[in-house]
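Inverse folding, one chain.
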């Protein structure tokens, strides 16, 4: 659920905003003074903040500035009755993403909040789209795509294959026992037969082979498996 924080000391406006965003299915929290709003933004993970500039306790510029200095990057839209360009610049400088002058149409605010939420989501997705990089292959976390470094051979892994390979990568060159692998992939409370994990190992081997990487999964008879380079065992 989308969580919105509204910091606005004009009670009637705050009520209107509350009702509006609540009716859109969002979880809305309202504060009528700057300090309570700021403290709430520190403690709670909101998706967006709508804050007035002139507030009792702490003004909107200071709220944003202090949040940014505490590394809280929740997008902020500033509301203000003042129309001077100077104020607008000050708002952006403080770290606000957007700025709306009162009086405004609520549809306008709504549209801008939507833009912020969309941007925020994209950034989060970008963060998730990280890679596990090895000298000879790359494993994409979000899409579970395995590819060679040249990028001309790619193949998608299943969720279990992905978990298995990333476990091997974390422990490159080290032997992992069948028990460790089973627990990592299926958890403790299972009665998975060991040959089941052998099946996944063989899938993974085929896929590593397919992308023509130098890494291979070696069977250490009676002990377990390890991921290592084909040519030598150097990590
Ligand atoms: Ca005010």
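Residues assigned per position:
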């Amino acid at each position: 659920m989308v969580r919105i924080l509204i910091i606005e000391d004009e009670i009637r406006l705050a009520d209107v905003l509350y009702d509006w965003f609540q009716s859109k299915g969002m979880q809305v929290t309202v504060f009528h003074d700057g300090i309570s709003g700021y403290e709430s933004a520190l403690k709670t993970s909101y998706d967006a903040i709508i804050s007035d500039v002139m507030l009792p306790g702490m003004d909107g510029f200071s709220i944003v500035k202090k949040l940014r200095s505490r590394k809280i990057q929740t997008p902020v839209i500033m509301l203000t009755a003042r129309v001077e360009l100077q104020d607008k610049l000050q708002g952006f400088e403080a770290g606000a993403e957007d700025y709306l002058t009162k009086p405004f149409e609520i549809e306008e605010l709504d549209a801008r909040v939507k833009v912020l939420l969309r941007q925020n989501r994209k950034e989060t997705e970008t963060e998730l789209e990280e890679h596990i990089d090895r000298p000879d292959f790359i494993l994409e976390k979000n899409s579970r795509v395995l590819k060679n470094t040249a990028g001309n051979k790619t193949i998608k892994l299943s969720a279990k294959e992905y978990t298995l390979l990333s476990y091997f990568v974390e422990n490159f060159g080290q032997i992992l026992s069948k028990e460790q692998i089973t627990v990592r992939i299926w958890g403790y409370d299972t009665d998975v037969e060991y040959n089941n994990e052998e099946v996944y190992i063989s899938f993974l081997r085929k896929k590593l082979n397919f992308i023509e990487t130098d890494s291979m999964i070696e069977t250490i008879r009676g002990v377990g498996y390890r991921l290592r380079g084909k040519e030598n065992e150097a990590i």
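The radius of gyration is 26 Å. The first helix runs from residue 11 to 23.
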